[in-house]
Design brief:
This protein is of the alpha+beta class. The protein is built from three helices and two strands; from the N terminus they run αββαα. It has a two-stranded antiparallel ribbon. The longest helix is centred in the first third of the chain and has 14 residues, at 2-15. It is globular, with a radius of gyration of 13 Å. The mean pLDDT is 83.
């Protein structure tokens, strides 16, 4: 049943516009990669409303080396 929840979360990430949605390791984490922050924020809101309340959700931003060093 728990594995199905992770699969459902991965499917929701894809449906919400993620370029990639993957399970991490043994399936203890699910993550999606988004090109636009606006798409990521919309997906975050949707997931927060559809996943179990005890799941922790994080919206993160990545940056390239030049952005970090600049």
């Amino acid at each position: 049943e728990e594995r199905q929840l992770f699969e459902t979360a991965r499917e929701r990430l894809h449906e919400s516009g993620a370029l990639k949605a993957l399970l991490c390791g043994s399936g203890s984490a699910v993550f999606g990669l988004y090109e636009k922050e606006s798409t990521q924020q919309a997906a975050f809101s949707c997931l927060r409303d559809t996943l179990p309340a005890d799941w922790k959700l994080f919206a993160c931003t990545s940056f390239g080396r030049t952005e970090k060093d600049g």
